[in-house]
Design goal:
Length: 582
């Protein structure tokens, strides 16, 4: 007979999901419980969650590292030179051949202290490294496999321990990416786009549950107990049912305070949502983190030399921060252990800007504005940081703000007050003729009260759709967040949303988020306004599947219509906002 025991308080972000875990799942984890009914686990309060996430929210900017035996291919296999960390899957490399190639993964130039210092000099406050990516290879000596750094490479030594030590010595937090479901080498690991239990090589055939029990669960336990990571970054929940995710989620109790993302599997929300390779146009509610590559690939590719520019990356960080998100920017080191120089250069460029302007980023929260033609804004209590990308040619910065301001200064010249001219629905700030910073100039604006801005005209609009799916009504597109969506029913290829404003408004732009579906929708859009009884086209084009922002000559109207069309899938929008003139 089993004796009931108290469970450790599970203070991870699984509040709802873990409250009624099946006893059998916990027993599998070595936790003995009373099997007579569902288990109730202590859940954290909102205040405890705030405390747990405090360092992460303050940090804003982190380094993602994709490193594994794929790095030793440098993106090349036979004729093709465009692969990344998916090389084994995309090229369908047989398991034995792929394993043998790990002999060429020998990071003799690995200098974890130098990596951490590069991250720190970039202004990054945390690091997330691939402890195991989809190739299934462990960067540390795992007791449950020989497909790891110790047994499969000439290097033999743990790669994670010295990085963890270096990060902590430099005051950075450190976390692990762990591919819990996809594993292309161990039998039974999931292979995306192949049926469960199989792959492209008979050596991959096996039972998913056995894989999870004998590889994934013990490896996550190894990672949590040996290194005490601050983050566990799950990825691609292929075939992950609620029952399969639960034992992995339960393990998180081994590391109180750990932060996890939303990719473990069905039923487990985690703490953070994870827009990948894009910045949501209107932002997400809650804690979120955009992860992004500097070039095209996550893993090292020798030909991947077309990199995002430093100014582009700085403005992405500002944009993300202005919507309350974090930025996890990736590097892909070589098999020798070197971060490519071009990527290091970009990190240094962002770091140089942050060294001067960090006050406007670290520890800030979402700014109050929905859209600004000239830039973005972050917030610290009653202080706003106005990030000016497009410096006003007439020396007047127009801020759509209703609250009373007490002072404005340039971040770098706190002694010099800028003149303020309050108007009924905006504040005009006199600024010097020349932009202090070519990328983003920061103005510190102190308010006498919490910020209040003119309401979004689309929040007050009545919205109708030409067609909508049950449960995905038109009103979801104007609820203020991209969390819920409007979607046309199956088979519909063109659909519109009509917005009737309570009063005519002077509008000069719009922002839209697209449904978070895979594959991403590719849509065409046309936005029109009804002016003097006729529809006038304001903006038209194609989306990138994530969202779209458009500007047009200011128009006064009370009726607007956006028409969405797509060839594959049904048209839809997660959020649509019209922006008034400043
Ligand atoms: C995943 C990984 O596959 C990728 O290698 C990288 O690690 C990135 C950070 O995360 O990217 C994805 C995730 C989901 C899909 C495609 C790529 N998807 O839903 O098809």
């Amino acid at each position: 007979m089993k004796h009931p025991r108290f469970l450790p308080a599970i203070s991870v972000g699984l509040t709802l999901a873990l409250t009624t875990l099946a006893p059998a799942l916990l027993a599998q984890e070595g936790v003995t419980v009373d099997a007579s009914g569902p288990v109730t686990v202590a859940v954290e309060t909102p205040a405890q969650r705030d405390t747990r996430l405090a360092w992460w929210r303050e940090a804003k900017f982190g380094l993602f590292i994709h490193w594994g035996t794929y790095s030793a291919y440098a993106g090349q296999y036979k004729e093709n030179k465009n692969y990344g960390e998916w090389i084994m899957h995309t090229a369908k490399i047989p398991v034995a051949e792929y394993r043998a190639h790990a002999e060429t993964f020998n990071p003799v130039a690995y200098d974890p202290v130098a990596w951490v210092r590069a991250a720190k000099a970039a202004g990054m406050r945390y690091i997330v490294i691939t402890a195991k990516h989809h190739e299934g290879f462990a960067l540390y000596p795992s007791d449950v496999t020989d497909w790891d750094i110790a047994d499969a490479t000439p290097w033999k030594k743990d790669l994670l321990a010295p990085l963890v030590a270096a990060a902590r010595a430099e005051g950075l937090h450190i976390g692990f990416y762990y591919s819990q479901a996809q594993d292309w080498v161990h039998a039974g690991g999931a292979k995306a786009r192949f049926p469960e239990g199989g792959g492209w090589d008979a050596a991959q055939n096996g039972d998913t549950d056995v894989y999870l029990r004998t590889i994934a669960v013990p490896q996550v336990r190894e990672l949590l107990t040996r290194y005490q990571p601050d983050i566990l970054w799950w990825d691609t929940p292929t075939f992950m049912t609620k029952e399969r995710s639960a034992p992995l989620a339960a393990l998180l109790a081994l590391r109180p305070g750990i932060i996890t993302n939303n990719r473990l599997g069905s039923g487990f929300a985690g703490d953070t949502s994870t827009p990948e390779q894009f910045v949501p146009v209107t932002g997400y509610p809650g804690d979120w983190e955009t992860c992004m590559t500097i070039g095209r690939n996550w893993g090292y590719n020798a030909n991947d030399t077309q990199l995002k520019s430093g100014p582009d990356l700085i403005r992405k960080l500002v944009n993300i921060s202005s919507m309350g998100g974090n930025f996890l920017l990736n590097v892909g080191p070589t098999a020798e252990g070197l971060i490519p120089q071009g990527q290091l250069d970009r990190l240094a460029e962002v770091g140089a800007w942050l060294a001067k302007n960090g006050d406007s980023i670290y520890g800030t929260t979402r700014g109050p504005f929905q859209s600004l033609t000239w830039g973005r804004a972050t917030r610290r209590g009653d202080r706003l940081y106005l990030h000016v990308f497009n410096w006003p040619a007439d020396g007047k910065l127009r801020v759509p703000l209703l609250s009373r301001a007490t002072s404005a200064t340039l971040l770098h010249s706190p002694g010099v007050k800028l003149a303020l001219h309050p108007e009924p629905a905006r504040l005009i700030i006199d600024v010097p003729a020349d932009a202090p910073d070519p990328v983003s100039s920061v103005i510190v604006l102190d308010l006498a009260e919490p910020p209040v801005v003119p309401p979004l005209v689309t929040r007050a609009a009545s919205v109708t759709a030409s067609a909508e799916q049950p449960g995905q009504p038109a009103a979801n597109a104007t609820d203020g967040t991209g969390a819920k969506r409007w979607r046309a029913p199956a088979g519909v290829k063109s659909a519109w949303l009509d917005f009737n404003l309570p009063a005519p408004a002077l509008v000069q732009g719009f922002g839209a988020d697209e449904p978070d579906v895979w594959p991403r929708l590719k849509q065409r859009y046309t936005l029109a306004a009804e002016v003097d009884g006729l529809w006038r086209e304001l903006s038209a084009g194609a989306t990138d599947g994530h969202g779209v922002v458009g500007r047009f000559a200011p128009v006064t109207a009370s009726r607007f219509r956006i028409t969405m069309e797509c060839e594959k899938g049904e048209p839809g929008l997660a959020e649509f906002q019209l922006y008034q003139a400043e």
